[in-house]
Amino acid sequence: MTKLMNIDDFKKLQEESRRSIRMRTKTGTRIIVGMGTCGIAAGARQTLQAIVAELQQREIDAHVTTVGCIGMCASEPLVDIEQADGGRITYGQVKPDMIPRLIEEHLIHGRVV
């Protein structure tokens, strides 16, 4: 983290943070992947990589983030999709080969898989 030397440094950091928050809320789509040790052991890292690759390929602007253990270890890898106009949907046992269909159905067509 950059050391803040004066008030101007703080104001610059503050504006960058606000810009980042606006960008994330503007897209309205947030994808959350459980990356606790249980999730990683079940393949969450590969699932996360597949999500990022699919979003890039389709040029979809979504905020992808990770969280620790959610407590449903038997259902890992867990992926939550949260959209501004809808609720938060949790998908369990999501493997990388499922990502194209998940993105197509949920993000593009608005249908829960």
Architecture overview:
With 113 residues, the chain is α+β, with helices and mostly antiparallel strands. The chain has one domain: Glutaredoxin. It is 46% helix and 18% strand. It is built from four helices and four strands; from the N terminus they run αβααβββα. It has helices at residues 7-27, 37-42, 44-58, 99-108, and strands at 29-34, 63-67, 79-83, 88-91. The protein has a four-stranded mixed sheet with strand order 2-1-3-4. Strand 3 and strand 4 (88-91) form a beta hairpin.
Question: How many structural domains in the coordinates?
Answer: 1
User: According to CATH, what is the topology?
Assistant: Glutaredoxin
Give the overall pLDDT as a whole number.
Answer: 87
Number of helical segments with 4 or more residues = 4
Portion in strands: 15-25%
Radius of gyration over C-alpha positions, nearest whole angstrom: 16 Å
Oligomer: single chain
CATH class category name: Alpha Beta
The outline comes out as globular
Instruction: Please name the CATH architecture.
Output: 3-Layer(aba) Sandwich
Series of secondary-structure elements, N-terminal to C-terminal: HEHHEEEH
Task: Kindly state the percentage of residues in helix.
Answer: 40-55%
